[in-house]
Amino acid sequence: MTLVQTNPTIGDEQDRPVNLWRDAWHRLKRNKLAIFGLGIIVLLAFVAIFGPYLTPYDFLSQDLQARNQAPSLSHLFGTDDLGRDVFSRVVYGSRTAFLVAIVVTAIALSIGTALGAVAGFFGDPYDRVIMWLTDMTMSVPNLLLVVVINASLKTPIARWMEAQYMATLNPFYRETIWIDFLLVFGSMALISWPPYARLVRAQVLSIRSRPYITAAMALGLSNRIIMMRYVVPNALGPLIVAVSAGLGTAMVLESAFSFLGVGVNPPTPSWGNMISDGLRVWQHYPHLLAAPAAVLGLASVAFSFLGDGLNDALNPRGTK
Amino acid sequence: MNVEPLLKVENLVKHFHVRLGAFGERTATVHALDDVSLDIQHGETLSLVGESGCGKSTTGFTILNLHRASGGRVIYKGQDLTLLDDKHMRPFRRDLQIVFQDPYSTLNPRMTVGEAIGEPMLFHKLAAKTELNDKIAALLQDVGLPSRFASRYPHELSGGQRQRVVIARALACQPKFIVCDEAISALDVSIQAQIINLLLDLQEKYGLTYLFIAHDLAVVRHISTRVGVMYLGRLAELAPRDALFEAPLHPYTKALLSAVPEADPVRERNRKRQILEGDVPSPLNPPTGCRFHTRCPIAADICAKVVPEWKAARPGHLVACHAVNSSSA
User: Fold this and answer.
1) Which of A17, A212, A221 sits opposite B105 (nearest CB)?
2) What predicted TM-score, i.e. pTM, was given to this entire model?
3) Chain A neighbors of B66, CB-CB under 8 A
């Protein structure tokens, strides 16, 4: 740290407000991999949002005369065993992937941030209870938990929905897709929040002991303001990195669950269940496996690159 | 001094409990502050001096309830501050402010100078949103910074500029009393002088009262009304500035003052120095009786056994030493 000797009443530097976020953006721009990742993510997000306008076919329309076709100009990624356009299905799969990734990460982040912040800021006994809960959740095998939740809750909820439909004739209760979403989102969020809680707790603990927090207390500011204006902004950097990585992880996780048959159920396209279907026939029709797998891999790598780039960009004192 | 003091500190005690050993299997108590009593008068600058770790800063922090007192009372406006929880302490925090030692770490790196100064004004409803920018500019001007600094971030400022911002932030609360906790120790000598003069100007302008915690005796002599000397968590002596510097009574004060170098080389060569033997004992296990007896050149038997009484040797000149007789006056 150098003391810049300037006459305090003159101050001759230019009056550019240097923002820490803007600095981070400048550093991020220099990282080619991160920008590559960001580009892929933006592209995938664009495809997911405008999917219905981009797909040449409906993802459900079957053409039994054109089954298992190799990629061609009319079917970019070929067709599957029911003659459905794989490209259209991959595009729709990206909607599922982004929906799951965003919703699950948002829920997990909310739970994790709230619990972690309380644990870090208020200390024992909250800390002890919350960390105990966190450790317990982390110690349960993820797949097992999701399978158990799906296996035990799916039927009762479906039965309840059916009964509601019979009673009210509200078509909402016929949409079994909501059960899928509820169970997938719920169970994935349930296993995804502990890392966020731990990260936020560690951040808050380290920030809480900084002198500027003592200074804020000495100013007589309320705990809420200290939390929102002093602790959270300073804890945000690592959290953004974790969220970027978490979005990719959630996509992969959803695919893994779909692959195992506990994720989003067919016919809703998901990269995971497409991979699962493709795997059975990959020796004859490799494109059915390759297309969704490649896109999933690309998305995962893109989030990972962006996360790494953000990590470096938000740490000005890093080695790079 | 029969005027009602601004703030009364009575027998303030602060003990920290620490865990020792690889597994924290032993607990010990750090006697950071024991039985400290002092009055702070309206408009004065009371300095606290002493070696590192003697409890100067702890005194400031405990008075402001940033450390919870282990015992004793701090009376302000008839209220014992040590009894208040965070929420009830808040209205008092406006009046009682602090400027910290390290201006680098006491400013939130994510807030501009203007936000840092404006925050307490908005929170304590001392300024409406519409007049906020004018008030921030006025405060910046008070501390000798141009108003366009309001849009700067702390990391763009030098140490001296940051300390000015910290002072402006404290002033934003319109305080009556400011603890300057080693407020200039982290700064360059040339900047120190600027900040001291700034503090003196502000004291005059706003009628502030300072508790000035420092270890630079020359600075203390320059700015203080009264000076307190601390040793190992206790006050050794408290007296008006001239009385303390000209006629110190406590042997520790004498030793401390004899360590101040003279600017004149001839006088410096002939200066008598009193070198103390040994090191400061650990506050984990402070000596019995008078805490200074292990190093005191005139220690008697009683010093190891009885804690010396905090008494007035002359009017307004308080000292804790068995060798000094209390005044009959």
Assistant:
1) A212
2) 0.75
3) 214, 217-218
